[in-house]
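Researcher: I'm preparing a figure for a lab meeting and need a structural model of a single chain. I don't have an experimental structure, so a prediction will have to do for now. The sequence is pasted below. Please return the structure as tokens so I can convert it later.
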Amino acid sequence: MLRPKESGWDHSLDLLAEGYSFIRSRAETFDAPLFETRIMGKKMICMTGKEAVQLFYDDNRFQRHGAVPKRIQKSLFGVGGVQTLDGELHLIRKKLFLSLMTEEKLAELHRLTLAQWRLWAMKRAGREVVLFDETEEILCRVACLWAGVPLKESDLAVRAYELGAMVDAFGGVGPRYQEGVKARKRAEQWIVSLIEKCRAGAVEIEDGRAIHAVVTHRDADSQMLDIRIAAVELINVLRPIVAVARFVIFGALALHDFPEYKEKLKEYGEDYLEMFSHEVRRYYPFAPMLGAKVRYDFKWKGYHFAKGETVLLDLYGTNHDPELWENPNIFRPERFEERKEDLYEFVPQGGGDPNTGHRCPGEKATVEIMKASFRFLVEDLDYEVVDGQDLTVSFVRMPTLPKSRFVIRMKS
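Model: Understood. Here is the structure written out token by token.
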């Protein structure tokens, strides 16, 4: 069966112009779960929906090595990071991250997040602040404390900016992308220097912390990580925590747009807090898509996949698929009370089993940070959303935010 194919030589500009809706809108037009297009002159197979997710996470058919563009490695992921590995090497490297996701460590992350929010509020009482910028700094401090990475207070703003700029560069072109590349170079220099000192015994590191796990990790060849790769992987702990600032701001926006949930969060406790966090992750745009390469020729639903072809999986569209989600464009946390967990339907940070596949190993950490942050916003913080700001969310910009970055006025 021939794949549906977009006419025209290249659709890179269409992707930039349409953003998060690019894949799903075309899949609906073709009335097919996939289609073929060209982006940056390269043939791409775009897929959406649950069955596409199941296929995409079949590691016998797809590989990550060679699938992540160098421009993404140079800004977001880092060259040689776990996201680009396959097979045994991927599983061994991923154990490094999964070892940090114990109940004890996640509970500590929740406590640290809540404590840092409270300390921040004491210093900002009575002020007007851009909440997104403040949240990145708070979560940078949380990330370093939790990971055991020394961080001077005077360096906080710079390090938060660098980690955030890597995330912001994902869908950027021109200056925004170049800023992410420069930010990664500076951050890697910082972490390489730190790891050198740790291995030389000049800096003490606490057993059980992420920095200890990275510094002492041995790969499939039983060798410790190259120091540059070690820096990439330690940043792969810090950067995603700072990236949660986007989910936190979307949660704040949800509380503003749907104020009835403030009282529900206060009244119904931990379970509702988790449902609310999941719905924020499903409803608002975060990661748009992921890529992989075909390992060998095969057929799926009658469509031919050729070895070496690149496939893009639609995350945002799958989280808004009307075949999977009733009224997907309505914000309703209660939907998570009614449905069983499915690793291939709810994919804000990827799909499949995080223990055996390429799904993000830090989703539980993301949820704990969000829960602590939302608890603080509804129970501890007395604030008002500043009138006149632009809270529109562009579905073209990737990754996106409310345009004003959410300005609030703290009450004394």
